[in-house]
Amino acid sequence: MFFSLNNRPFTGVVFLVLIFFSCLTSADEAPKKILSPMLALSAKASLEGREKCQRLMHEDAVEFQKCASQWIAKLPAKTNEDRYFKLGASYYAWLSSTSALKNGMPKAEESAFYFLRIFRPLQKKLKVSDQDLCPTIEGDCTSRVARLLVMESELQSAGKKTVNSTGAVPSAN
Amino acid sequence: MKILKPILLASALAASILLSACGGSSSGNGPVGYQSVRIVAFNDVHGNLDPLDSKSTSVVPLSGVPAGVTVNTGGIAYMGAVVNNLRSAVPNSVVVAAGDNIGASPYTSNIAHDEPTVDILNQIGLEVSSVGNHEFDKGLTELKRIQGNGSGISTCYPASGNFGVVGVDTCLMAGKTFSGATWKYLAANVVNTATGQTIFPAAYVKKFPDANGVNGPTVGFIGLTFKDTPSEVNPTGVAGLTFGDEATAINNAAATLKSQGVNAVVVLIHQGGFTTSTVYGDTTCPGFNGDILPILANLSDNVDVVVSGHTHTDYICKKPVKSGKLVTVTQSGFYTKGVTAIDLSFDNTGAVSAVNGFNTPVINPATSYSATAPAYPNGITAVTPVASLVTAASNYKSLSATAGSAVVGYLTAQVNIQAPPPGCTTNNTCDSGSRNKTVETPMGDLSADSQLAAMQGAAVAKPGQISFIQSGGVRTNLASSNGAYPGPFTYSALFNTNPFHDTLVAVDMTGSQIKTVLEQQWEAPNNTAFYAPNGVGEILMPSAGFTYTWDSRQPAGQPRGQGNRVVASSMMLNGVPIVPTQVYRVVISTFLAAGGDNFPGFTAGTNPVQGGFDIDALVKYFASYNTSGTAYSPLPANRVTKLDQNGNACATGTWNGCGNP
Q1: What is the rounded distance in angstroms from the CA atom of residue B98 to the CA atom of residue B77?
Q2: Which of A5, B118, B200, B279 could form a disulfide with B68 if both were Cys (CB 3.0 to 4.6 A apart)?
Q3: For the packed helices A12-22 and A37-53, what is the interaxial angle rounded to 10 degrees?
Q4: Can you spell out the DSSP letters for A111-145?
Q5: Does B359 touch chain A if contact means CB atoms closer than 8 Å?
Q6: Which of A46, A62, A95, A102 to mutate to test the interface with B (most CBs of B within 10 A)?
Q7: Structural domain of residue B503, as residue ranges?
């Protein structure tokens, strides 16, 4: 796992907050894995995103995508803490879209690819492995990472052809 | 008032349970043969009969493929087959639903007032269901008609039943009657405010036979919807109704059921949660969250199972109620794409000893009933649809096509919405590339004109003066059916332009309040709600006679109440300036009247009088344009004028190429 505090001063308050969230993978679930302080920020972001946007995943994924993308676009990315928070936010938005995709939610595929194109480069830039990122949101990492790799492969193969600005690719069907 | 409501509700619950209990007394329960019971459940069918392409897939598990496999799912004839398979595997079963069986339906069911869906769910054997929010879309009177009176007497839509024309009225069932649902709707927390009674029974009791076919377990079902239903339904649909606290209603009904001696209590609730699972059929319930959690946390131990809905996903969870007891919480998915089975086992005393739930995807071999089957990997098996249900669904599709093919009027040219600029193709910027919501359009103006006309005339006590329709409510162009002009257009073409089946309402608004609403077109958050390059905001299109100018040099995205784009002195009604303090009669949809699409200014309207449906207004409007010789000519979209960056008026239809947003 990679994370770095770089040159950021760590205040006592921030430290306490991170310690608190480092014990959580979900607000209402028992902790499954102790997260690093930086990935705890990612976990915190996922809970915040859930609170803001999850209810909008209803008739289709359009309103959810709009809510999450506007929120994520406004997040700062100046510090390492910012970037880990943004990683968690966009990872959550991808996962929520992918979870809706399992039920055939209209526009969920476009939404999932949209957020995949946001969090994947950031994840690689921060050098966070899939295995380390996955526990920031509770769930089965085997199926989730496998689904992630399938979608990434589809995105890459589509990228060799035509990918529109949302990153949407033709349906696998 | 806060004290009275629970008391009112509790009284209503007790009375309604007594009325609805259908056999099975506590004295009949004995320590003999408590054979298990399978509850077969689904939710949020929303009138989906066909396995539609746009929402026809699911990701299902397959051994050795951790990511799961994408398959086609849904279709009511396939869902019927899954229900039959689940039922045939056990001696005791019952089919239940958690609401939104109807409402927000595709065209086939929608045009026939959801009677096709009611007929087919009757055939599938649905026995009891909660109401959902969409059951109230068209009001209690219509919902009561859907429930039916059980007598077999025709109660065609509307209640007079004197139309009998497909597409105008329905009654499509055999014998040209509509006798309503054979399942029982439950509404434990929905009270008629005037009578204090629940609108439907709170609970339903079903007694199952034991192994000898006599005295088995008794299961009580409680049905309800979420208490905030009024916030998600047209206000007219829930007028005169009170939606109570969910946990209170459940606990009261459960206590009554237990006192009557039921062996198990199953809640059917139109409220749900979400998990983070990426594969259908998960039973581990990761990251469960959502509005159902606080309800569960306040339930009593009397509850054994919660069948949920509304959030359009699937899960099988074990979650604690108030005491810490774990109850099984399920949801099957939506749009006929999955079915839940919950097996209840009982010990020798009749107490619930085990609850085991699982979800089964409705895997179909094709995206239509007649398409060629794709090859699925080994281990993935599609179901064979129930032939009689295929016939019924196909019949209704044919009938709806017949209804939709009726000629409503004639056009001299296509009536257009405005397409986005070239290159603007994505959801996030241009509303799926098919529509530009930031400009006035001829189709929007036509829609507003029809709504105003519907609320005028001698029969209307306070005739409308101005009508508005939001660009989000106008979906597509209106074209002739043969491509020639003058040429005829059909009911289905007209329906597709305004597909929401909204009810109209006339309200009083001052000139000042009208300006406030107009500013909300570009204030936050509407300034970012579906924008196109060089276009901002969601436009309200006015009826003929109302004109105004807006200035693109003034900023968009101002906080609510601080926008200043409308040139106040430009607002005119039939050439006369709008007076800020004068009251005008404004016709809008009840959706807008409730502040929909971020236009809360409309909630200031007073003295509301309800009208008919928007589609009916359009049909009526074209009564004057129903021959080739009287064909309707699209009007130029020139009721709203945009000023460019130099303060010059943009030419009609060129807003996106005229100055900045």
Answers
A1: 19
A2: B279
A3: 70
A4: HHHHHHHHHHHHHHHTT--HHHHGGGS-S-HHHHH
A5: no
A6: A102
A7: 407-657
Interface probe, candidates A25, A33, A103, chain B, greatest B C-beta count within 10 A: A103
Burial of residue A76 (number of CB atoms within 10 Å: 0-12, 13-18, 19+): exposed
More confident residue, B406 or B151: B406
B302 close to B327: Cβ distance less than 8 angstroms: no
Asked if B288 has any chain A CB less than 8 Å from its own CB, the reply is yes
The CATH number linked to B315 is 3.60.21.10
Say yes or no to pLDDT of A50 above 80.
yes
Does the beta-carbon distance from B429 to A107 stay under 8 Å? no
Last residue of a domain, one of B392, B416, B439: B392
* CB contact at 8 A, B147 and B199: no
Mean residue pLDDT of chain A comes to: 79
Indicate the DSSP class of residue B535: B
More confident residue, B19 or A111: A111
- The confidence score (pLDDT) of residue B379 equals 85
Residues B332 and B443 in one domain: no
Same domain, B304 and B444: no
Query: Rounded distance, CA B277 to CA A26, Å?
Result: 14
CA distance B103 to B117: 10
Burial class (CB in 10 A: 0-12, 13-18, 19+), B173: buried
Mutate to test the interface with A, among B100, B233, B312, B427 (most CBs of A within 10 A): B427
Q: Which range has the worst mean pLDDT, B286-295, B309-318, B491-500? A: B491-500
Q: What does the pLDDT look like over B358-390, one tens digit per residue? A: 999 999 887 566 656 667 888 888 899 999 999
C-alpha to C-alpha distance for B497 and B475, rounded to whole angstroms:
5
Each residue of B139-184: pLDDT tens digit? Answer: 888 898 889 865 555 566 655 433 334 434 566 655 567 778 999 9
Q: Is residue B439 part of a domain?
A: yes
User: Of B361, B392, B423, which residue constitutes the final position of a domain?
Assistant: B392
Mean pLDDT, residues B54-59: 74
Is the model more confident about A22 or about B581?
B581
The answer to whether position B401 is within a domain reads no
**pLDDT attached to residue B154:** 52
Look up tokens 């989730």; give the residue.
Answer: A144
> Distance between CA B199 and CA B582 in Å, rounded?
41
Domain with residue B509: its CATH number is 3.90.780.10
**pTM for this entry:** 0.77
Whether B467 and B377 share a structural domain: no
pLDDT value at residue B657: 66
Cross-chain Cβ contact A103/B280 below 8 Å: yes
What token pair was written down for A27?
A: 């607000």
Phi, psi of B63, rounded to the nearest 5 degrees: -55, 130
Say yes or no: B477 and B585 in one domain: yes
Nearest residue on chain B to A151, alpha-carbon basis: B67
* Residue B74 touches partner A, C-beta closer than 8 Å: yes
CA–CA dist B32, B13 (Å, integer): 31
Q: What are phi and psi of B147, to 5 degrees?
A: -65, -35
Q: Which of A7-11, B202-206, B648-652 has the lowest mean pLDDT?
A: A7-11
Tell whether B415 and B281 lie within a shared domain.
Answer: no
User: Are residues B351 and B449 located together in one domain of the fold?
Assistant: no
- Summarised one tens digit per residue, pLDDT across range B61-92 is 998 999 999 999 999 999 999 999 999 999 99
Task: Please give, rounded to a whole number of angstroms, the shortest distance from the CA of A57 to a CA of chain B.
Answer: 8
B295 close to A (CB below 8 A): no
* Number of structural domains chain B divides into: 2
Domain boundaries, chain A: 12-159
Task: Give the minimum alpha-carbon distance from B54 to chain A in angstroms, rounded to a whole number.
Answer: 6
| Cβ–Cβ gap B276/A99 under 8 Å | yes
**CA–centroid distance for A77 within its chain:** 15
